[in-house]
Amino acid sequence: MTATERPAGLCAGITLVNLASHAEVSADPVLSGLLTWATSFLTYPHADLGRGGPVCPYTAPSLNRRLMWAAVVRGSDLTVDQVGRYADDLIELFRALDPRDESQEIYRSAMVIFPDLTDYSFIDTVQAERKPVVVPEGLMIGQFYPGCSEAGLWNAEFRPLDCPYPLIALRHMVSSDFAFLAARREWLTAYFKRFAPAIPGPVRSSIIDRMAPGQR
Asked: Is the CB of residue 127 less than 8 Å from the CB of residue 143?
């Protein structure tokens, strides 16, 4: 699927909009608000980040390459099951998005936004349930919402997932994701398979066993 199309999901029926499509984004206050947050926060350094560079070094390249997508799902009476079905749609659509070029895939991201949702625990629940599904594919799923307390990687006091809107985001795994994957053996397996392919499989398994003893 190219950046000029409007991919629609089969499960719950979300439609992705490319955030580089200025007319469509400008017509939707949620999409335009999200883009403003992304370009004013994620693409800039922050004093509390704990390292140099922008909060998210992939956001600006993603937007410049027309590889950032979003869908908006309105309604304040959504159930956690419905949020889960929209997340499943997001996963399905993400798998089909261009580019297939591995050198560009790290810049591809997509998200589904729930601007009227007030129970943010739904976002946490759905993210936690889908993480074991997508990580083996080399994907990462994240939860963002106002007041999200998830700590930053380089500074435990920084809150990079505190976002104006509750949303679930999907992207490809990057090398700095190790800290988010060390809790489970199968996640470490996916990480090493992606970033240490030259290491023979049995050796990778031995390394993982030593790092995560007792995890199966």
From this structure: yes
Scored b (16 or more CB within 10 A) or e, 152-172 reads beeeeebebbebbbbbbbbbb
- Tokens representing 70 are 């979003």
Quick check: helix, strand or coil at residue 109?
strand
Q: What is residue 12's predicted lDDT score, i.e. its pLDDT? A: 61
CA 77/CA 88 separation, integer angstroms: 19
- Mean pLDDT computed over 17-39: 95
Confidence bin at 41 (pLDDT 50/70/90):
very high
Helix boundaries (H) for the chain = 22-26, 29-37, 59-64, 80-96, 121-134, 178-181, 185-195, 201-211
Rounded to the nearest integer, the mean pLDDT of the chain is 89
Q: Residues in the chain, how many?
A: 216
Domain ranges of the chain: 17-176, 182-216
- The amino acid at 28: D
Burial class (CB in 10 A: 0-12, 13-18, 19+), 194: middle
Amino acid 8: pLDDT: 56
3-state secondary structure at position 192? helix
6 falls in which pLDDT band (50, 70, 90)?
A: low
Q: Does the CA dihedral 195-102-60-118 come out positive or negative?
A: negative
Task: Give, to the nearest 10 degrees, the angle between helix 80-96 and helix 121-134.
Answer: 40
